[in-house]
Hints:
This protein is mainly beta. It contains no helices and eleven strands. The strands form two sheets. Strands 2, 4, 5, 6, 9, 10 and 11 form a seven-stranded mixed sheet that branches.
Amino acid sequence: AHLVESGGGSVQAGGSLRLSCTTSGWTYDQHCMGWFRQAPGKGREGVAIIESDGTPSVAFSVQGRFTISKDNAENTVYLQMNRLKAEDSGTYYCAVKPGVCWWNQDRFPTWGQGTQVTVSS
């Protein structure tokens, strides 16, 4: 599988961005797609995951502000980020794994290159 993220950029606090992750070469019917992020000097953390049937789950830190969704026809998963805060800044990665969703990023064998999000306060 090959993943390509897009949609990152610089915004002021309170603004919005929508990240996209387009997949190709994926052969598993049941799979989980996730968004993870890494801030400078910090470890990578899970942001949102979505099952094959579209069931989403988002991290507590972004609940009410971020939404994950997918378009099966376009082989694309989205992360809508609203009311952005400075602490949301970092590199955002898309990842995919076969089977059901897990928050454990070690379970995800395939990752994109990442897209940078910078939120200024």
